[in-house]
Design a protein that fits this description.
single chain; mainly alpha; Four Helix Bundle (Hemerythrin (Met), subunit A); two-stranded antiparallel ribbon; 7 helices
Length: 162
């Protein structure tokens, strides 16, 4: 087992590792040649976690949202689309703040929804497109984040002591 999953992690690292774990399952299922509906489903849920990793913390005006849960509560109570599902809110977040991956994210969401609720018999082309969408989303989202200001200050302080 990958030892990085056993180390204490901050929320962002957990989100990223969740995405990577879902991707491993997706790849495992794809390599098996079985359950293409679950290949697409796990591809989507990996992408969802990559999006959450990339988007948060999110600063809007004077407010900072450290997690999707915080953002969802805010959106649910303060906007005209309150009462929408978390998936609807995150799709809007992607449209607004992660525009570069909006098209592949929405396509993967739709493919996953279809695989789960409409037609589990998925063809190879649909799987290929889903995996390409996941790869594009991962490439955009799975980047190192800049250190938070507090962390940078701690690092600077510790260097001065040495």
């Amino acid at each position: 087992m990958d030892s990085s999953f056993n180390m204490p992690q901050n929320t962002e690292e957990k989100r990223r590792n969740h995405a990577l774990s879902n991707e491993k399952v997706c790849n495992y299922l794809n390599e098996s040649g079985k359950f293409p509906d679950w290949v697409i489903t796990t591809a989507f849920y990996s992408a969802l976690q990559f999006v959450k990793y990339k988007a948060f913390p999110l600063k809007l005006d004077a407010e900072t949202f450290n997690s999707f849960d915080d953002y969802y509560i805010h959106e649910k109570h303060n906007n005209q689309y309150g009462g929408k599902s978390p998936h609807e809110v995150i799709k809007r977040l992607v449209n607004r703040h992660l525009k570069k991956i909006a098209a592949p994210y929405h396509e993967l969401y739709d493919a996953c929804h279809n695989a789960r609720y409409s037609d589990y018999e998925i063809n190879d082309d649909d799987v290929k497109i889903a995996l390409e969408n996941l790869a594009e989303i991962k490439k955009f989202c799975n980047t190192e984040k800049p250190k938070h200001k507090v962390e940078r200050q701690k690092m600077t302080t510790s260097r001065k002591k040495n």
